[in-house]
Design a protein that fits this description.
Keywords: Disulfide bond, Membrane, Signal, Transmembrane, Transmembrane helix. It comes from Hemibagrus wyckioides. This is TNFR-Cys domain-containing protein. With 147 residues, the protein is α+β, with helices and mostly antiparallel strands. Helix content is 34%, strand content 22%. It has two helices and nine strands; from the N terminus they run H-E-E-E-E-E-E-E-E-E-H. Strand 8 and strand 9 form a beta hairpin. It is elongated. The model has no long low-confidence stretch (mean pLDDT 75).
Length: 147
């Protein structure tokens, strides 16, 4: 009976060890998902945005996106990895983390700023001209009401 007692107490330990000794079955250039699907890593400069999936008899590949670069005035706090995009924050701070794609590109600012200035100047010019023309027109005589 001592033999069976030793085996029954060792079984949970043996089962735990066996679960942790899972042998990776994917090649080096692929990663394994929990349901034992092997997916290809994205190429250099890209990261996985959607894992591969298994449909009946076929496997659909991963979806990759290019790694972002931090915009001007931002600093990189975490580089792009196989599974995450570049993480950026405002220079001199560590947080809040800002998605690099949310920052306006500098080229767009070169267009927006002049357009806004032209609109402001045009509005001020219109207001100034309308005041000058209003002051030149003769005033209307007040209407006299006879009672």
């Amino acid at each position: 009976m001592g033999f069976w007692r030793r085996i029954s107490t060792a079984m949970p330990l043996l089962a735990t060890v066996m679960l942790h000794l899972h042998v990776k079955s994917c090649p080096e250039d692929q990663f394994e998902l929990p349901d034992q699907i092997c997916c290809h890593f994205c190429s250099e400069g890209r990261f996985v945005t959607k894992n591969c999936t298994r449909n009946k008899n076929s496997v659909t590949g991963v979806k990759c996106s290019p790694c972002s670069e931090c915009a001007d005035g931002m600093q990189m706090i975490a580089p792009c990895t196989s599974f995450t995009d570049t993480q950026c924050s405002v220079k001199g701070t560590e947080s809040p983390v800002i998605d690099p794609t949310q920052a306006l590109p500098v080229e767009l600012l070169y267009v927006i700023v002049p357009v806004v200035l032209i609109l402001i100047i045009a509005a001020l010019g219109y207001k100034w001209c309308s005041r000058r023309s209003a002051s030149r027109e003769p005033a209307e005589e007040p209407v006299k009401i006879m009672v």
